[in-house]
Amino acid sequence: MHLRLRQFGAVCVLALSMVSTASAQQDEDKTPLGKKMSAMNTAFKAVGRQIDDASKNANTLEQLAIMETNAKAALTLEPEKKAKVPAGDQAKFTAGYQAGMKEFIATVQKLQAAIKAGKNADAVAMYDELKGQQREGHKEYRIKKAGAPPGGN
Ligand code: HEM
């Protein structure tokens, strides 16, 4: 019985270490821009869960600050897809990406102002605007992965 328990314990430790290695590997597979996006994604989801709840506004502002910082960092990076665009179109591609990201940052800032003013209902509409900008940004500038929904995260 004792031995069984030990074996079970060893299997659990092994399984746990495999899970953590797999997630570290997933993180390493991400591009520098992908890492900024992942950080934005976590904050964006948190904002979505509580944007209509004024009692959570302090935390909502913290999450929006995380989004703003990562979006500004994303502005200095270039999408992986650029290399797949013909050389003559690359400047236009990068300019379009930067314009999209600047528009996104401006909407995040508008949303911050609405939350600061306690206008949560207005903020909900702006959140939907961000979703649209995310969809467009991904459709245009992100490499489509096999099986991924168009524009999805
Ligand atoms: C709420 C807004 C957004 C969220 C939550 C979001 C989330 C994500 C996520 C989760 C990924 C995959 C990261 C990975 O695992 O590799 C990604 C990739 C990407 N996103 Fe976004 N995104 C947002 C807005 C945008 C916008 C506005 C643009 C462009 C203007 C954009 C462009 C890209 C690109 C180009 C990639 C691929 C990474 C690369 O090429 O290196 N995203 N995004």
Describe the 3D structure.
With 153 residues, this protein is mainly α. The chain has 2 domains: 1-30; 31-141, Cytochrome c/b562 (Four Helix Bundle (Hemerythrin (Met), subunit A)). 75% of the residues lie in helices and 0% in strands. Helix 2 runs antiparallel to helix 3, helix 3 (57-75) packs antiparallel against helix 4 and helix 4 runs antiparallel to helix 5. The termini are far apart. 18% of the residues are buried. The site of protoporphyrin IX containing FE has 24 residues, from helix 2, helix 4 and helix 5.
Q: How is the main sheet built?
A: none
SSE order: HHHHH
CATH second-level architecture of the largest domain: Up-down Bundle
Helix count, per DSSP? 5
Strand content: under 5%
Which stretches of 5+ consecutive residues score pLDDT under 50?
none
Task: Compute the CA-based radius of gyration.
Answer: 20 Å
Number of strands: 0
Number of domain modules:
2
* CATH-derived topology of the largest domain: Four Helix Bundle (Hemerythrin (Met), subunit A)
Average pLDDT rating: 89
Distance between the termini: 47 Å
The kinds of small molecule bound in this structure are: protoporphyrin IX containing FE
At the first level of CATH, the class of the largest domain is Mainly Alpha
What share of the residues lie within helices?
Answer: over 70%
Question: What is the CATH superfamily label of the largest domain?
Answer: Cytochrome c/b562
Helix/strand class: mainly alpha
Net shape: flat
